[in-house]
Specification:
heterodimer, A: alpha/beta, Alpha-Beta Plaits, Rossmann fold, 7-stranded parallel beta sheet, 5-stranded parallel beta sheet, 11 helices, about 25% helix, globular, B: alpha/beta, 9-stranded mixed beta sheet, 6 helices, about 30% helix
């Protein structure tokens, strides 16, 4: 398996261009020579800029441990009997990977009274569905999930384990990976296999400005969390001959923490992570009360309402709506930015949306640089026009 | 209550600009800042100390100049700071990083609570916090928006989920990761800045924390970067002209083709 390492040769003239180029700022100068420090991700930006080709990134061979199993396991997340969309999306990725690997597609689901859901998963061409059904699992208790899933993995030894990049998934995956001592790649948006059948996991990093393909050559399972809305829903296969396997839940399943309550906020316009369409507002909306227009437009389009940091900080709309670096990263099919100038922190959270629309008074706003469609105009005129057009179509 | 706050120094995202011609990020000479999410972690730690007494220690792993980020935490009211820095730590993925930080926490001493920012804005993994909790065998809650109570060795928190929040009770010691809703970080005080200016941040290497060489840095990292590239952003913006009504109609027509 190929691995990479980086070194600086004697050819280094100490010009310092690599220091400026390094996106992670980990290069320093010791005497007349560049030194690559902690935090290097081997991105290669320094090697590219080096005028004397003194920075060498080497691909070497590392002895690979024999992989154990070859199957693909998908974590199917459910809350109140509702399976998360991203879990289905993973079943379609999992089918693609297991076909290429000549392996079985397996899935795991946990909850109370979920046998029917487990049975239903089989019809997405899953070869084995493992389910844990117990009153103790009524709520998605992370510690319990982590121990049951880790035990299952130790038993069935999958080669690949994929988890939806939800709040729950992003929280349990690192614990499972750490307990198993294996690698985990966060928030992936693409998968492929190399000749040896190793999983090539692609993810955006550095606020979406750099894409990295990550491998986990010597450890199994190869684990990744996956960004929602990237992959398509799988086809149903009515009579798929998959197996349903009930797993025992130990009566003395221990957990230190306890979920005291789950409070659902029925503001459906706040679920920006899973929305197909997001109508987002910024300072250019002028006033908190004008967000009513965004709500109305979002409802007409069947979408959610996003917001820039500035308006969240101003208290116009709750934090759950914030898109961007200190908010959520979203990837809807359509993102309509209304009165958002497009600071780089905001772009980091939405620039991988399929189609971006920008509506802004200022024709020079940076948001137009990433927009597929731009409207220079007053949001307070354009949005009402959109609403009346949509209503007119009725 | 003794608290450890894990922080990271990251390139300043607000300094990065997009080259309008190439659509790529201009990265030259970007200065480094304290990871934005860590400000909420530091603020909450300092507030808990003010309410319950105890001591707050900031911990980071990174190159020697990451001491600057630790000093910023001190200026905000953190008592002590430690930097884990050594060539042997380089190339660490989230597994090796959480192992290293967990050892650092162990050496700092008895603790009740560990607070991390939700994620660092350079790697965006959000994996190190839960990883540390697992290494230490303590419970954790991510995306914490409010601490409801912290007494009698118990912590009750509200944790954001997709469509609301969960209220979770954990025995201490525990680990939480902070989101922006948790608090409003304070500005450094003059006294804090004076203290941080004078402070020599101790630097610990693998020997100081008795790290197993095969579990740190690139040796201890199951994941490896195979390749990286900059996404080419298509810049084919189409401006829609006319009256608001015409613009609205044109846009819906375009979006209709998308749907």
């Amino acid at each position: 398996m190929q691995v990479m390492s980086i070194r600086v040769t004697d050819a280094c003239i100490g010009c310092g261009s690599c220091i400026d180029e390094c996106p992670f700022g980990v290069i320093s100068m010791e005497g007349e020579r560049a030194v690559i420090g902690d935090g290097c991700t081997l991105c290669g930006a320094c090697a590219k800029i080096c005028p004397v080709e003194a920075i060498i990134i080497e691909r070497g061979q590392k002895e690979a441990k024999a992989p154990e199993g070859k199957d693909v396991l998908i974590f199917c997340e459910q809350r109140n009997g509702q399976v998360a969309d991203v879990s289905y999306e993973l079943l379609s990725v999992g089918r693609m990977l297991s076909d290429k690997l000549g392996a079985q597609l397996t899935a795991v689901i946990l909850g109370e009274g979920i046998k029917d859901h487990a049975q239903d998963l089989v019809t997405y061409s899953v070869d084995q569905v493992y389910y844990f059904d117990h009153p103790q699992l009524k709520l998605p208790h992370e510690e319990k999930y982590v121990s049951l899933i880790t035990d299952l993995i130790t038993t069935i030894r999958p080669s690949v384990f994929l988890i939806g990049g939800t709040t729950l998934g992003r929280s349990i995956a690192p614990r499972i990976a750490t307990r198993l001592g294996t690698g985990l790649t966060a928030d992936c948006t693409g998968f492929d296999l190399d000749e040896a059948g190793n999983l090539m996991q692609t993810r955006p990093t550095f606020g979406g400005n750099l894409l990295a393909t990550i491998i986990c050559p010597n450890h199994r399972p190869q684990m990744a969390t996956v960004r929602p809305k990237v992959f398509s829903m799988p086809e149903r296969v009515a009579d798929y001959p998959g197996q349903l396997i009930e797993m025992a839940v130990p009566e003395d399943l221990k957990a230190l923490s306890e979920i005291l309550s789950v409070t659902e906020q029925d503001d459906e316009t706040a679920n920006i992570a899973e929305a197909e369409i997001i109508v987002a507002g910024g300072r250019g909306m002028g006033d908190a009360k004008n967000f009513a227009l965004l709500n109305e437009l979002a409802k007409l389009l069947g979408g959610a309402v996003g917001a820039s940091r500035a308006v969240v900080d101003a208290g116009w709309i709750p934090y759950a709506h914030q898109v961007g670096q200190t908010g959520k990263t979203v990837k809807p099919r359509i993102y309509i930015a209304c009165g958002i100038s497009g600071a780089i922190q905001h772009l980091a959270g939405m620039q991988s949306s399929d189609v971006i629309v920008a509506i802004n008074k200022d024709a020079n706003a940076p948001i137009f640089q990433v927009a597929d469609y731009g409207i220079v105009g007053d949001v307070l005129e354009v949005i009402p026009a959109l609403i009346s057009e949509l209503k007119g179509k009725g | 209550m003794n608290i450890v706050v894990c922080i990271k120094q990251v390139p300043d995202p607000s300094q990065a600009k997009i080259d309008p011609k190439t659509g790529l990020v201009i990265r030259a000479g970007v200065k480094k800042i304290l990871n934005p999410f860590d400000l909420y972690a530091i603020e909450e730690a300092v507030r808990l100390k003010e309410a319950h007494g105890g001591k707050v220690t900031a911990l980071s792993m990174g190159p020697p100049d990451a001491a600057e980020a630790l000093k910023e935490a001190v200026a905000m009211g953190v008592d002590d700071a430690v930097l884990l820095s050594d060539r042997a730590f380089a190339g660490a993925d989230t597994l090796a990083t959480s192992y290293t930080l967990a050892l650092g926490i162990g050496k700092i001493g008895a603790f009740d609570l560990i607070i991390c920012g939700r994620q660092a804005v350079d790697g965006d993994t959000a994996q190190v916090g839960p990883g540390i909790a697992e290494q230490l065998g303590i419970p954790h809650a991510t995306d914490v928006r409010r601490i409801v109570s912290a007494d009698d060795g118990q912590l009750v928190v509200e944790r954001m989920i997709e469509n609301g929040y969960e209220t979770i009770r954990m025995p201490l010691p525990a680990l939480i990761t902070a989101v922006k809703e948790l608090n409003e970080p304070r500005m450094p005080s003059l006294k804090g800045m004076m203290r941080s200016k004078k402070m020599q941040v101790p630097i610990w290497g693998p020997g100081d924390i008795q790290a197993e060489p095969e579990r740190i840095g690139s040796n201890g990292s199951p994941t490896q970067v195979y390749r990286t590239w900059e996404p080419t952003r298509k810049i084919t913006s189409q401006m829609l002209e006319g009256t608001p009504q015409q613009q609205a109609r044109a846009l819906l027509e375009k979006l209709g083709q998308v749907q």
